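Project standup — Tuesday

K.O.: blocked on the structure for the chain from last sprint. Re-posting the sequence here as requested.
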Amino acid sequence: MIAQLGKIDILVNNAGGAGDLQPLVELSDKTFDDTMKWNVYSTFWGTRRALPPMLAQSWGRVINISSTEGKIGKPVFTAYSTAKHAINGMTKSVAQEVGASGVTVNAICPGLVITDIVKDNGPATAEAMGISFEEMVDLFAQDAAIKRPNTVEEVAAMAVLLASEAGGGITGASLSVDGGTAPY
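H.V.: unblocked you, prediction finished:
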């Protein structure tokens, strides 16, 4: 990758997803492990690979896309919430490790954002919650102070800030872009 591009300045770890949503007592080891691999391991692997060249150039930005579920939890989201809490912890730890180097490490914690993937997979998520897709969107929206889902543009604006020179003083943060859902 470095040989082809010359250097790496910004890494956005945006892999992940909720996968199968089940109550803990029904959650299989495989589903839990798959959720960890999809969310936590991919963030770990990407960050571990990108850090050495960033450290060598004394500048870089690592932006982990986490979730409001990394700060709170909902029924049947146990595996996903655990994974996103782990990403937030990894973010804080790695930021402490590399903070003096010019590399920042942060997480963005979006709430519900109606993307194409959410439209495709949302009905199954809602079914696992025992409600309709529309009821799920309303439920998530009612948890937010703004009473609506966030937009892709609102989440992207935070990423742009964190990737910029202006974001240089922000590191180790798990920043909510969730319309006021998370309590912190």
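K.O.: great, moving the ticket to review. The chain has two domains: 2-111+150-177, 113-149. The chain has six helices and four strands.
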